[in-house]
Write a structure and sequence with these properties.
Elements: H1 10-15, E1 17-20, E2 26-29, E3 32-36, E4 41-47, E5 61-64, E6 68-71, E7 75-78
Parallel strand pairs: 1-7
Antiparallel strand pairs: 1-2, 3-4, 4-5, 6-7
């Protein structure tokens, strides 16, 4: 049986909320995407940092596309175990 594939525009992906499947934490929305223009595929998604430093500079979180587990109607589920900031 063939796996059904869906197409999403970049605008639709950026409007989806990102949720970590391990903790159920809402991580926000996609800030940017890294795209391989030669292979025509997404390499990783860039999420805004959860913390700000003393001088207002924040480190963005880069999540490899392989960690995206499910794309729903309005959410994108990722396995963010190693990318989440440890308290």
């Amino acid at each position: 049986m063939d796996e059904e594939k869906s197409l999403y525009s970049l605008g639709n992906l950026r409007a989806m909320e990102i949720i970590d499947i391990n903790t159920g934490t809402k991580l926000g929305f996609i800030k940017d995407l890294k795209i391989d223009c030669d292979e025509y595929k997404i390499i990783s998604i860039i999420l805004p940092s959860q913390k700000m430093s003393w001088f207002g500079k924040s480190e963005d979180i880069e999540v490899p596309w392989e960690n995206v587990k499910k794309i729903g109607v309005d959410v994108l589920l990722i396995d963010g175990g190693e990318f989440m900031l440890k308290e």
